[in-house]
Amino acid sequence: MSHWSLVYLDYVPEEEGHREALCAVGNGYFVTRGAAAEAEADGVHYPGTYVAGLYDRLQSEVSGRTVENEDLVNVPNWLPLTFRVDGGPWFHIDEVAVLDYRLELDMRRGVYHRRVRCEDSEGRITQVNERRFVAMAHRHVAALELTVCPLNWSGRLTVRSSVDGTVVNDGVARYRDLEKRHLRTLATTAPSEDTILLEVETLQSKIRIAQAARTRIRPEGGSGDVPFDFVRETATADSRPSQDLTVDAAEGEPVVVEKVVSLFTSRDSAITDPGVEATKRVERCGTFEELLAAHVLAWDHLWKRFAIELGEGEGTRAALCLHIFHLLQTVSPNSLDVDAGIPARGWHGEAYRGHVFWDELFIFPFLNSRLPEITKSLLQYRFRRLPEAVWAACEAGYRGAMFPWQSASNGREETQTLHLNPKSGRWLADASHLQRHINLAVAYNVWQYWQATGDRNFLGSMGAELYLGICRFWASMTELDKVRGRYVIKGVMGPDEYHESYPGAETPGLDNNAYTNAMTAWVLAHGIEILDHVP
Amino acid sequence: MSHWSLVYLDYVPEEEGHREALCAVGNGYFVTRGAAAEAEADGVHYPGTYVAGLYDRLQSEVSGRTVENEDLVNVPNWLPLTFRVDGGPWFHIDEVAVLDYRLELDMRRGVYHRRVRCEDSEGRITQVNERRFVAMAHRHVAALELTVCPLNWSGRLTVRSSVDGTVVNDGVARYRDLEKRHLRTLATTAPSEDTILLEVETLQSKIRIAQAARTRIRPEGGSGDVPFDFVRETATADSRPSQDLTVDAAEGEPVVVEKVVSLFTSRDSAITDPGVEATKRVERCGTFEELLAAHVLAWDHLWKRFAIELGEGEGTRAALCLHIFHLLQTVSPNSLDVDAGIPARGWHGEAYRGHVFWDELFIFPFLNSRLPEITKSLLQYRFRRLPEAVWAACEAGYRGAMFPWQSASNGREETQTLHLNPKSGRWLADASHLQRHINLAVAYNVWQYWQATGDRNFLGSMGAELYLGICRFWASMTELDKVRGRYVIKGVMGPDEYHESYPGAETPGLDNNAYTNAMTAWVLAHGIEILDHVP
Fold first, then answer.
1. Do residue B272 and residue A339 have CB atoms under 8 angstroms apart?
2. B479 counts as catalytic
3. Helix A514-533 and helix A437-453: axis angle, to 10°?
4. pTM for this structure?
5. DSSP letter for each residue of B172-189
6. Which of A506, B165, B241, B490 sits most deeply, having the most CB atoms within 10 A of its CB?
7. What is the mean pLDDT of each run of 10 residues along chain B (535 residues)?
8. Using CB atoms, which residue from B208, B270, B337 is nearest to A206?
């Protein structure tokens, strides 16, 4: 076991949520939590798949108020793959005796492995091995392989492969009283013998999401070309299309099931329709092994650029590796053509609703020296929302551009201004949108990208406009304190979010927050240099 | 009259179609034909608005066959603006006596002007002046101003402003037997007192298109702030929402109507929903004059970069100006974030269905030396469709990438393989997809962009992959003729489209087309150099 692997040797239900986040697999376009393939959301397990920048707004009634929240949407779960023997109960890790367990996240290759040896209530002992990945080499593809080996039995083995469109956003306990259903099913079909297709749409933003799943079965070692006697039954009646594949399984002879999935949305470019593209893509995909080889090569290339070798012991190496791994699953070359920012928690779950705060400040320096094209693409996320930021500044009585503390789909301020205290039942004002230093972060990031790349085209086409718009904002927000003879900035919240107003003050915000003031001086000073470089 | 203006001093119904194309206004994101604002498609007039890269596929039954065509969609017409007096007939140029007429396309400022002095059947003489533009400074905005001056009458003047969602694709005579209805109406609403909103969706590609129109009325010289007595009636019952604004008009006192329109589609980035964005945008827009000032400034900046001064007489200057003007209406800084290529006829009409052929070969050199960011964005159109081109090559038995002769939404070959001869009623094979030189054009364009910019990031992130994929294709398509001791290329069609096969030959295509062979040699030779420059 090296720093490249995260390994768990026991199954602990209480830790599943945590492990699902740590063992998520993704490719910068979409991310899937490391939930057991056979599980549904049930308090222990929480399968979640999130597409970069795919949001939906819902209104909820909370204690007599209507609140609107914009969520990163939990899209249909492509994982479901389980089995049963002789018409018995479907395999579920919580319903069997776990004799041996090994969960490994192979970060070098970007592969999730789960190995379970278990015994069911009939005394049947089975080795269940699973491998899965979200393809770094194929933006719209993920794959899962399940190997079932009867250790002390023979019988009729039925494998069920499905896509679950009934999922909701239920991953965060304190959001649970809010509306959580973001999807409606548009169509459930079987475009070809081995493929099912689920098409859904978000309720408000009306983004269509299509997932096609191709499921094939073969004996271990078989290529799939040799005839293998099995029965396939397809069900497409509801929002969980499925295929059941039944074979005669013999003791000691592993059966391998390959599930290859393609995911497209109506936000993608170069498509005619997400359903058409998802179907076409799985039809054209090679085998699990072929996809895996390309995936591993893509990770190999990424690690060559991004690995940091410190040599200070396995603990440090492992931590660094884990952080870089999840960062690259959130943004990668697959993100280049996607309109998304850097969310606070990756696309790994629903915390902070997948909103974009100022975290890019800490991440861009890492990207700038390795693959600055990614930074540029992420700065475009801001540039596209510049008109909204200019409008926000104007509405607040300032000039220039005022980016929101929490940004999501269209760059509107997504920070709630009121929060219900669940204990007191009172609504409390939330002034965290006064963290105007987000604006400074955007300008700082433009400057850092420019310093790292010398990319004048960027400066001319968007960088300078972003930077100078932010300078104008600060120039209009600072005011001259005549007594001190110095400029001051009033009514902001610093990065220390625990201090949002003076004790007893009626209006929120602090004056002359050190971080904000220092960064403002820095940004304005460098603004003059930017002017010198605009083509 | 300078080379900056295209002026017509008479109204000639038979020439309207031609003039509509020449007087189209656009901003690189959408283009609107220069149809009379009061007109519908009727054989003389053909209002058409097209959004860059917005296609839809329809199947038609033609003489017992099902053919599928992908069309550039004629989206709802935002122009309709007309008037009537005392409840009489609505003004239409074909229903009045035209006393004086002047149509001017002001290319320096990107403004369409129409001035009509006319007399109706009641002897009322009216001066009708119209100005319109598709805002170069605001990608999603267009505006139209109508000034009505009663010259010999006073009366109740009603102006009708609407958005027409009943339009179909009917602009090309020989496509008229095919299915032509691409839109269905989703919603027709009035989000605020002075604004109507029409939301439609394309039938197959399910792209939602929202158009919001804000209509205001004032006396000439009035700012809109002074109270002005008028009645507004809004109708949103069908696919043509409208507002009627009625005032008392007095002889010699011009009444001015401003219509500001915003157009968003579900393909846009930085949106939550096109309807929300379109509504928000018109609410935030300034007056016609303010929008015009920003528009003229944007054109001024463009002309500073793009004008070609030859000084060889007004005729040459006018021709150059007209060509550059329409090119910049098809691709501009507004195209940078749009997934579209260079269509054969601009976004000015339905000829060639808005498909993308090899025309970029002739256009990119002009862009490369002036605003290469546009070329890069257009090469991205190809790069996003590289997987489809790789698949096409593979299906045809070749390696590498084979781009289609006609490309539209997802990069599938859109060239029809059979055409119905309307005279003989026979289906004839069309081998024009054998114009494999399209591939050479893409490679050549990559090279030219690289030469013009030295943009290594481009080369590393997409240019080299595009170029070398094309090289691989040609390497696999050429074969060694052992008798001659030379490589040959068989079964292609050259740029001369009139020769597609040898007389009496059973299979189409020619061997060793000079252009294709020479360009292939050129592309392969430079491929070696590309390798030297990949980071």
1. no
2. no
3. 40
4. 0.96
5. -GGGTTS----EEEEEEE
6. B241
7. 90 98 98 98 97 97 91 98 98 98 98 98 98 98 98 98 98 87 98 98 98 96 73 97 97 97 98 98 97 98 92 85 97 96 97 97 96 96 98 98 98 90 82 94 98 92 96 97 96 90 91 97 95 85
8. B208
